[in-house]
């Protein structure tokens, strides 16, 4: 009984009512405007210099790399021009020590090495041909420009963008911490290491993963107005949307094409409301924040994204375990247990270690609808080393996990609704009845059960959206934004290079790609071939 009552108290602290959601939207809109007016606001609202979204007819072969979470991906993407594409990629885990390396060079040298391995494996013929050509050329700088791969660099951290392939790192997030890189141009850092290896690769575009997601969604499912928002709900969270240039009041440093009257803005909404004016703040949110390398920053992200939800759950569970009046994960004898023995927790249980609980446990808890919660109880045993948990234990654990997941989804609705309202698309008479398209990606939205349904439930309760508006908002998964989207932006960037003709090079590569069947895969990497499904 005590456990049930205490659990309810904990769960209650994660409530995020319809009223809270509406307050959140109002404040989000205010912080968006502030970010469009000046630098240094909580919502950075970073101009990306991308001024159009694709329409599905784009063609060509491009490269993309993606740094932003636990893995580094290298891809080549064949855009077929008919809304489909073919993607080849390798993925390698980023060694933990490189995430906190002393110098930027250490990390970026590792990235360049992976690009070399990828080229040798998947575009070997082309690569070798150019090595030969380079050796016979008198020019010391190597390759002719038209023989160089255009690469889109998806770098999913806050960057002050200074042009389509230039941007300085504002701060690290998601557990990365290499102070040496802060303030430096990340494209130049990568290009330097690529050049040291003499690779035929030019970093043509710098892309946030949310911008890539927006591009990929627009390419694969073009509607009357293209997608308006690309959002990530994964290890971190963020969104990029299409804004009218007239609303962008702060000065822009670089050149851009203003013919569309629009520009994609990277909101960096992970830092929405760092001041905690409207964000919920439980004792466990406070504890979590204080133990991170960036306290007081990314406060919205710390309540929403996959990197943090497992830790919030762990902290709440630990508090309940410490309560002497509550029998949680312990019993006097096995009689109250439907399984074999007395409940206990191993000393080495991940429950006692910071970051020990992976957010995937929340998904398992939410997905288990068996009457005995047997799947969750098995997970508690095998993953968290809680032996013979009772049904009541599992129910309490599930209730808390679901409350945290539900709050995250409702908070996600705040950002989505604010952006929809900001664009004015719901009330645009030209778009009457048309879907408002949003591309999303990330482990939470993909794997957490009913995450999208919970977002929709909150959207229906938002003033200015309501039942009708929510019906028009189409939230669809946009897989591989960081590959396809980056390729699309590299394509735009290549078009902007006045002196270059890439046609021969692309024809050459396309022939090459047809000939190369994807066989050899480097060890410790994954290979996949995908076509846009939607
Ligand atoms: C970063 C964003 C990124 C998001 C999703 C956040 O931590 O600041 O740039 O888009 O994670 O990967």
TrEMBL record:
GO BP annotation list: canonical glycolysis; intracellular glucose homeostasis
Listed GO CC annotations: cytosol; mitochondrion
Pfam families, A to Z: Hexokinase_1, Hexokinase_2
GO molecular function, one term: ATP binding
Pathway: Carbohydrate degradation; glycolysis; D-glyceraldehyde 3-phosphate and glycerone phosphate from D-glucose: step 1/4
Domain (Hexokinase C-terminal): residue spans on this chain: 229-492
Keywords: ATP-binding, Glycolysis, Kinase, Nucleotide-binding, Transferase
Keyword Zinc: no
Root EC class: transferase
Enzyme Commission number(s) from the entry: 2.7.1.-
Domain of life the protein comes from: Eukaryota
InterPro entries registered for this protein in UniProt: ATPase_NBD (IPR043129), Hexokinase (IPR001312), Hexokinase_BS (IPR019807), Hexokinase_C (IPR022673), Hexokinase_N (IPR022672)
Annotated Hexokinase N-terminal domain residues: 8-219
Family to which this protein belongs: Belongs to the hexokinase family.
Protein name, as recorded: Phosphotransferase
Organism field: Sordaria macrospora (strain ATCC MYA-333 / DSM 997 / K(L3346) / K-hell)
